[in-house]
Amino acid sequence: MRKSKSLATSLNRIPNSELPTQHLHAKNDDIASDDWHLSTALQDAISSGSSEIHFEQDKQICRVRKRLNGQLDETRIDSASLVAELIAEVHGIRAVKPNPPPITTHGELAITVEANTASYTLHCTYYSTTSGHNLSIRISCSEKIPETLEQTTLDSPQIQLLRNHFSKKSHGLTIVCGPNIDFLQNVYYGLLGETNCVENKIVSLEHHSKKEFPRINQLSLAGLDNADSISQLATQGADKIFIDWQCSKNKLIVKKVLDDYQSATVFVSALDINTAISQLTDYALNERQLATNLSTLIQLDTVRIVCPHCANSHDLNGADMQWLEGQELNSKIKADSAFVYAPGCERCEYSGSQESVPLMSVCTVDDNIRSAIETRISSDINKAIQQRSGKNTLQGQVSVLVSKGMVSFTEYKTR
Predict the structure, then answer these.
(1) Helices (H), 220-366
(2) What CATH number corresponds to the domain at position 136?
């Protein structure tokens, strides 16, 4: 990766007349804002702490989505070719003078820029659509990526639970999943830092390494396609293997590694455990292989604590009452304290929430879960996991927070 440049000096708007329209299918754009360009979006995203920014061209508008703490915020900009211009700017940053590389209808590249006195890596992916192009940029700052689990938002009991699990000699496949990509990434690198020791051979398969550890064999899969040789390099003599599935584009390499090494830990960006299992069975292991090798399911998520300064109780509906009966909270006083709604105020910047707290569920796989995985019926898998985990499921943990009036009932219903 080449030497980084400052964000302000390296991101300059490219006029429409200079766009390679034969590759990008861009149109002459008479409705785009002249003062809106890539540095504007990235500077705003970095300042707000966003981890991702997505640009989606949809005919005469461009949808801009930013991810912050796992939540997507969308704005729209009037433009018929903004994404095409941004892709050209991205390549302009990376270009080796005097001739920039050709811009195709799809591609992927990593860029390092300086902003706010820190170095940021931008992982850019773009592809063509019927409406133009889509561009996704993941933003990571190596200085902010944790080196230990204490540097994540996990609390002490959760950290100890993870340490107990990963300190043991692995005897099967561990799946770690969750919808919050930022949270997953932090726990991933926190675990790498925990295992960064001399006596073990630790292997990490990542699409792009966002933080380097001196004693861990971190293999970047970007641009690699020889699954057999990569798997041999990764698995030979390995004590532990971590796989960053949500960023791994090369599924064939991951499939080969999992075929050769059945005790890996796979991080999967997924809404729930069923989606994570589906991803693995679709691209890596069949149902019987997964059921046989799987030993532990770890689910991670975050939940927003309502702002106490603007929280109010609300009228109960049928779903609320049904939940109350299951929680044995039938009194009006408990109901008023449990079902809170925060519309937003100045103290929470009108978000309605004060902070996000981490949730974690660890489930040791039994024969009932294995049998359910082989059927590939989501309801059977959920039932088997709930029977095994009891109240330790993520939904059960959110339920407790709702009953204490700390979390909106909406957070419970979305799980």
Answers:
(1) 227-235, 251-260, 273-283, 287-293, 318-327, 332-338
(2) 3.30.450.90
Where a domain ends, among 142, 157, 175?
142
Tell me which residue of 314, 261, 309 sits closest to 285, measured CA to CA.
261
Note whether 188 and 203 are same-domain residues: yes
pLDDT digits (tens, 9 = 90+) for 353-391: 777 889 999 999 999 999 999 988 888 998 999 899 887
Q: Which domain holds residue 58?
A: 5-142
CB 26 within 8 A of CB 16: yes
Output phi, psi for 400, to 5 deg. -65, -40
Instruction: Enter the tokens of residue 276.
Output: 């994570």
Other beta carbons within 10 Å of 68:
14
Close Cβ partners of 105 (under 8 Å, ≥ 6 residues apart): 23, 24, 25, 127, 128, 133
Give the contacts of 335 (CB within 8 A, at least 6 positions apart): 313, 316, 320, 324, 329
Question: Going by C-beta distance under 8 Å and a sequence separation of 6 or more, which residues neighbour residue 160?
Answer: none
- Residue 96 and residue 178 in one domain: no
- pLDDT above 70 coverage of the chain, percent: 73
- In terms of Cα–Cα distance, which of 202, 128, 132 is closest to 170? 202
How many structural domains are present in the chain? 2
Question: Per the domain annotation, does 330 fall within a domain?
Answer: no
Q: % helix / strand / coil in the chain, to the nearest 5?
A: 40, 25, 35
What is the Cα–Cα distance from 117 to 404, expressed in whole angstroms?
Answer: 42
Q: What is the CATH classification number for the domain harbouring 157?
A: 3.40.50.300
Q: Are residues 17 and 157 in the same domain?
A: no
**Same-domain check for residues 355 and 241:** yes
Q: Give the global pTM.
A: 0.72
Burial class (CB in 10 A: 0-12, 13-18, 19+), 77: middle
